[in-house]
Write a structure and sequence with these properties.
With about 270 residues, the protein is an alpha/beta fold. It has one domain: Nitrilase/N-carbamoyl-D-aminoacid amidohydrolase (4-Layer Sandwich), CATH 3.60.110. The chain has seven helices and 15 strands. The strands form three sheets. Strands 6-5-4-3-1-15 form a six-stranded mixed β-sheet. It is globular, with a radius of gyration of 18 Å. This is Carbon-nitrogen family hydrolase. Keywords: Hydrolase. GO terms for molecular function: hydrolase activity.
Length: about 270
């Protein structure tokens, strides 16, 4: 299986419309790969809190439309990163007062929405995303022809219980778009490898380049195999990281070193 992680650069001097067009073009350039991944909140910047409301959009808004077409044009599975989603259901007639969510969109090679995931763990403690956005409630997996993908976003990476639930739901490949800050880059690499080792799964973690609202981004998108070995890692700048990996290695790893079978504390072993 071949995957391309688009480590997209987000800068304040580029309009959201321009970013959409540029991201769509980059996705189309990946025709021939199986899975393409964009980072978290690339339309606004993960730390550009003041833009979440003004640049929010419904689930089937302009980013949805642009990414659906790009996935179809390229004939790829596309994890289109995440957007600030405005949920207008139950709000006023304009929909302007509906809750916000950090929502990931996953498209099939035909451009159909295969899944969406609202980020469960919101970053910021008493500010930013943690107070501006609602929290998702359900782990989400997506079945691709070659592998079952478990979805998580950025700060979720710090919460291993989410990944256990994804493995219980059949996940073999964990895809994590992020807007991770440079000052905690060592955590990014460490946690990506830890999630791979403890769940005996592939981790595809796609970050951003550039600076979001004055916060330099870590970049260093990374692909890790089920033994925790780094298959590929990007640098700090905008880059497309393309890697080939064998999804069958998940099953052989879990058979050769069946640590997941020894789980206790009331947790069920993963489905086989």
């Amino acid at each position: 299986m071949r995957a391309s992680l688009i480590q997209f650069r987000v800068d304040e001097d580029e309009s959201v419309d321009s970013r959409r067009r540029r991201a769509a073009s980059l996705v189309r350039d990946q025709a021939g790969v199986d899975l393409v991944v964009l980072p978290e909140l690339w339309t606004t910047g993960a730390f550009a809190y003041k833009r979440f409301g003004t640049e929010s959009e419904p689930l089937e808004g302009p980013t949805y439309e642009a990414m659906a077409k790009a996935a179809s044009d390229a004939g790829v599975w596309l994890h289109a990163g995440s957007i600030p989603e405005r949920d207008a259901s139950g709000s006023g007639s304009s929909g302007d007062d509906g809750p916000l969510y950090n929502t990931s969109l996953i498209f099939s090679p035909s451009g159909e929405l295969a899944a969406s995931y609202r980020k469960i763990h919101r970053f910021g403690f008493d500010r930013g995303e943690a107070v501006l956005m609602g929290a998702g409630t359900e782990p989400v997996t997506v079945r691709l022809p070659e592998t079952t993908v478990g979805l998580a976003t950025c700060y979720d990476l710090r919460f291993p219980e989410l990944f256990r639930s994804l493995v219980d739901a059949g996940a073999e490949t964990l895809v994590i778009p992020a807007g991770w800050p440079e000052r905690r880059r060592s955590h990014w690499t460490l946690l990506a490898r830890a999630r791979a080792v403890e769940n005996q799964a592939y981790v595809l973690a796609c970050g951003t380049a550039g600076t979001h609202a004055g916060v330099p981004q870590a970049g260093h998108s990374i692909v890790v195999d089920p033994w925790g070995e780094v298959l590929a890692e990007a640098g700090p700048d905008e880059e497309i990281l393309t890697v080939e990996f064998d999804p069958a290695k998940v099953a052989t790893t879990r058979e050769e070193f069946p640590a997941l079978k020894d789980r206790v504390l009331g947790l069920e072993p993963p489905r086989r």
